[in-house]
Amino acid sequence: MCTDSTTRRGRFDEILASSVNPMTWKRITKLVDEASTGTHVDEHGAWEFGAELDRKRRGIALNWDLYGYGQDVHSRQLLAVIQVRQYQKQCAKWWPSIRKNYFLIGRNEDGTVFAHAVQSGVVRSAIRRNKPVIRAVQDWLWDTDYSRIVRQGDIGLVPRKVKPKGEPIEPTLTVEGSHQLIATAILRDGDIFFALDPEMTHLPGTHPPVSATGWFKVVSAKRAPTWDFAAATRD
C or N terminus of the chain, fewer CB within 10 Å? Predict the structure, then answer.
């Protein structure tokens, strides 16, 4: 499968559908469709694409464009970065209000689709530098080289070369209410946790168990703030 570096972009840096392999485009649009009707979106509800505009372009519209796509370095699954854009105009003589959110979308291990809010500046910077958008976004999410991460959904384990400093606590930890971590030892340094030889289980069962050998920092993937017209999904 080709990546966003081999495609053509339009006036606003969006990837032109005509430059994407038709089968890949079909898979991407299916991801977007499933994400827009997801059953575990946040409190703002699902995405409802379409337009209700009069002849003076008053009204509201919600649509999306593709800004990056490629394979996950670990799972080799298809990922895409999309812009979800809201257009709203109340009076003919007023300028329209345009609000944008960016999301990394893909499939969880159980086949469900996720949409994780990402920072627009990271997407735009990668495009300007002709770098793969997917990897730029993933490195931003984890604040490190994504290829080093042992990941379970929105929680990751970042390897440490030496034993970190911290106060020993019970070697069992529940992260964000849904990821149960058991380790040979766990250290706490303020709000940061480190685990030795960790094993992590996702309690809802969306993601399979993961384990690793050595010391690791326990991290949560960052999320960009979003306008409430287009919600991210929960892990």
Answer: N
Neighbouring-strand partners of residue 78: 71
Sign of the dihedral defined by the CA atoms of residues 110, 171, 218, 43, in that order: positive
Measure the CA dihedral 147/157/222/134, to 10°.
20
Question: Side-chain half-sphere of 80: how many Cα atoms within 13 Å?
Answer: 24
How high does pLDDT run on average in the chain?
Answer: 88
8 Å CB contact between 174 and 188: no
The structural domains of the chain, with segments of one domain joined by +, span 4-148, 150-220
Question: Please, where are the H alpha helices in the chain?
Answer: 22-36, 120-128, 133-142
Give 157's strand partners: 150, 218
Give the type of residue at 141: L
How many Cβ atoms from other residues are within 10 Å of residue 75's Cβ? 13
For residue 19, the SS3 value is helix
Q: What is the pTM of this model?
A: 0.88
Main-chain dihedrals φ then ψ at residue 127, nearest 5 degrees: -65, -45
Classify the C-alpha dihedral 77-80-81-86 as positive or negative: negative
Largest CA distance in the chain: 66
Question: pLDDT grade, residue 232 (50/70/90)?
Answer: low
Instruction: Using alpha carbons, list the distances in angstroms from residue 219 to 144, 157, 197, 205, 216.
Output: 11, 6, 15, 19, 9
The distance from CA 137 to its chain's CA centroid, rounded to whole angstroms, is 8
**The one-letter amino acid at 125:** S
In angstroms, the CA 123 to CA 119 distance is: 7
